[in-house]
Amino acid sequence: MMITISNTELKNLDIEISDGIATITIRRGSKLNALNYDTIEDLRKAMKEVNTNSDILSVIITGEGTKAFAAGADIAELAKLDEVGAKRYSQNGQDVFAIIENCTKPIIAAVNGYALGGGCELALACHMRIAVEAAKFGLPEVKLGTLPGFGGTQRLTQSIGKSKTLELIMTGDMLSAKEAKDLGLVNHMVTTHEELMNKSREILTKISGSGPLAIAMVIKSVNEVYSSDERGYLKEARYFGQSAGTEDFHEGMEAFLQKRKPDFKGE
Ligand SMILES: C/C=C/C(=O)SCCNC(=O)CCNC(=O)[C@H](O)C(C)(C)COP(=O)(O)OP(=O)(O)OC[C@H]1O[C@@H](n2cnc3c(N)ncnc32)[C@H](O)[C@@H]1OP(=O)(O)O
Predict the structure, then answer these.
(1) Closest-CA residue to 112 (of 71, 72, 74, 62)
(2) Which of 30, 105, 159, 161 is in the most buried spot, having the most CB atoms within 10 Å?
(3) Is there a contact between 173 and 138 (Cβ–Cβ < 8 Å)?
(4) d(CA 145, CA 14)
(5) How many whole angstroms separate alpha carbon 120 and alpha carbon 126?
(6) Bridge pairing between strands 136-138 and 114-116
(7) 185-223 burial: b if 16+ Cβ within 10 Å, else e
(8) Ligand 1 centroid distance, CA of 116 (Å)
(9) If 0-12 CB within 10 Å is exposed, 13-18 middle and 19+ buried, where does residue 79 land?
(10) What is 2-191+212-223's CATH number?
(11) Contact 49, 15 (CB under 8 A)
């Protein structure tokens, strides 16, 4: 049976529950599902529903349309931040993504297109990633005069190792779904959007055949490998804040919004 939660508090997301699987869809298609502050708060509320609703056994997070999962944090919002605001913005995103990572019900990111910046960081916070062939992954924040701020420096390193992470973040290059799969960032690659949802549901249905308590313990035990040291996240947020105090940050953001090349001065 399909239940639709019509939660008027959710501005840019919806949640649909079918056969114990909650599908959370980001709905800001005209901005390539960019994660503005309201959408991040929607994700926080959606995760509260996931954690408290016993009808929900597992979760798929995806984006509306066929072009983007999420093209990052909302650059128009970032452009207005000062150092203090940017640090807070980063910590708020980190906080919500930690709720996703630590959820004891399995969560798959069904990556239906661009997963860039905060969108890639959202996919990384999920327990698994299934992607369509046309999906693209990347942390291009340096091109905006900043660095990833929602845990990407930490989780990408955990996922694909230091050397490849440094290359990807410093070049700002995008990975194809095939490259991401070869690096272990993506669990499975499929061709169509229908296959994307089917494959995600197939895996979650298989998992739900086992005991939920054991599954929760698996998630907690595996997460424990990386949980002993939070300093990396704190540093990332501090640097993200510091970057907002530079001229390069504002030049990078304004250049994107004005659809021109940035002129970075190292100031
Ligand atoms: C802590 C986290 C920090 C971050 O995440 S910083 C952000 C990191 N992400 C990025 O740098 C990616 C930004 N987006 C792009 O580079 C491009 O988009 C794409 C390559 C993904 C696609 O390019 P194309 O096909 O030419 O589409 P389009 O015209 O650029 O985008 C369609 C509309 O979507 C808006 N948009 C796209 N990404 C964002 C974003 N991240 N924040 C705010 N708006 C965004 C655009 O501006 C535009 O809008 P309009 O039609 O009104 O001109």
Answers:
(1) 62
(2) 105
(3) yes
(4) 32
(5) 10
(6) parallel
(7) bbbbbbeebebbbebbbebbeebbeeebeebeeebeeee
(8) 9
(9) middle
(10) 3.90.226.10
(11) yes
Which residue shows structure tokens 């494959």? 199
DSSP class per residue in 161-203: -HHHHHHHHHH-PEEEHHHHHHTTS-SEEESSHHHHHHHHHHH
Residue type, 227: S
Cα 165 to ligand 1 centre (Å): 22
Tokens at 266, concatenated: 């190292």
Mutate to test the pocket of ligand 1, among 31, 67, 253, 257 (most ligand atoms within 8 A of CB): 31
How do the pLDDT tens digits run along the chain, 267 residues long? 444 555 568 999 999 999 999 999 999 999 999 999 999 999 999 999 999 999 999 999 999 999 999 999 999 999 999 999 999 999 999 999 999 999 999 999 999 999 999 999 999 999 999 999 999 999 999 999 999 999 999 999 999 999 999 999 999 999 999 999 999 999 999 999 999 999 999 999 999 999 999 999 999 999 999 876 789 999 999 999 999 999 999 999 999 999 999 999 999
Tokens of 259: 């659809």
Rounded to whole angstroms, how far apart are CA atoms 70 and 112? 9
Task: For residue 103, give Cα distances in angstroms to 9, 52, 58.
Answer: 21, 11, 10
What residue owns the CA closest to ligand 1's atom 34? 31
Name, in order, each residue with C-beta under 8 angstroms of 175's C-beta and a sequence gap of 6 or more: 136, 137, 138, 168, 183, 185
